[in-house]
Design brief:
By secondary structure, the chain is an alpha/beta fold. The protein is 33% helix and 25% strand. Bound molecules: S-adenosyl-L-homocysteine.
Length: 267
């Protein structure tokens, strides 16, 4: 038992809470580029990592599956240059709908242009942003329901193993403890070809994050636990970078962001 004022634990927010209370529009507030220096820095770090991974890092192939896409597309902007087909996925109906809205260019869709322009600039040509949006819209072939706690995470859909899996800020949100994290990592890995790449962005030592007024729990992870879970799931880590969180903001208590590329060992 902990006394008052000792620590505030955020009760685990599982799938039902996401489905009922994760507001895509509120989450997308984090991606309004150019309005808040700190928020921009966070996004810039991640965008640079993706750019590096998918350009100089040479992660490429035919198919990429993004696991727990949420309502966002920024994670796919560099990836879409290197893959023929992308499958996005998320647990909640509203997130998948929000994503579809952008893919179909429907009214009311989130405006990603500032982020798209920035990624084009990183890749060497800011003027190509409209083409990139078009390219991404064509390459995302499906937006599927996904539950990382299931052994067949995309059921009832079934897909051939992909060349690359991407998963950002999802497993630590979806898992209650380290055991379920390890299991979820194995669940997602069944969708990856041996020799294929796993690209992840993970928040370290976070216990909660805010989406609008709603607090969501996060599994407290240390870098070593992630490395251990990856080893156990059959991966060799190829690169890993950590950047500390210097902000005092209260929308989340993460201490650092970890970005990694790992290779699935042949069986
Ligand atoms: N990948 C996005 C969104 C991260 S937010 C980004 O980089 O910004 C965390 C996401 O995990 C939410 O969209 C939530 O719906 C999803 N999620 C929560 N529980 C899940 C589960 N059991 N299986 C799959 N996704 C889940």
């Amino acid at each position: 038992m902990c006394g008052f004022g000792v620590s505030i634990m955020t009760e685990f927010t599982g799938g039902d809470v996401y489905q009922a209370e994760f507001d895509p529009k509120a989450f997308l507030e984090y991606f309004k580029f150019g309005e808040d220096t700190w928020r921009d820095d966070f996004l810039i770090f991640i965008l640079k990592q993706y750019c590096k991974t998918f350009t100089s890092g040479g992660v490429k192939g035919d198919t990429l599956i993004d696991i727990g896409s949420g309502p966002t597309i920024y994670q796919l902007l560099s990836a879409c240059e290197n893959f023929k087909e992308i499958i996005a996925s998320d647990y909640t109906d509203r997130n998948r709908q929000e994503l579809e809205k952008w893919l179909k260019n429907e009214p009311g869709a989130f405006d990603w242009t500032p982020v798209v322009k920035y990624v084009c600039e990183l890749e060497g040509d800011r003027e190509k942003w409209a083409e990139k949006e078009e390219k991404l819209r064509k390459k995302v072939k499906q937006v599927l329901k996904c539950d990382v706690s299931k052994s067949n995470i995309l059921a009832p859909a079934s897909l051939p193993q992909a060349d690359c899996l991407l998963s950002a800020l999802c497993l630590e949100a979806a898992c209650k403890d380290l055991n379920s994290y390890r299991a979820a990592l194995k669940n997602i890995s069944s969708l990856l070809k041996p020799g294929g790449h796993l690209v992840m962005v993970i928040v370290l030592k976070e216990t909660y994050y805010m989406v609008g007024q709603r607090r969501f729990s996060c599994l407290y992870l240390e870098r070593e636990s992630v490395e251990e879970a990856l080893r156990e799931a059959g991966y060799d880590v190829q690169c890993m970078e950590v950047t500390p969180n210097r902000s005092q903001r209260t929308f989340s208590d993460f201490e650092a962001v970890l970005s990694l590329v790992a290779c699935k060992r042949p069986a």
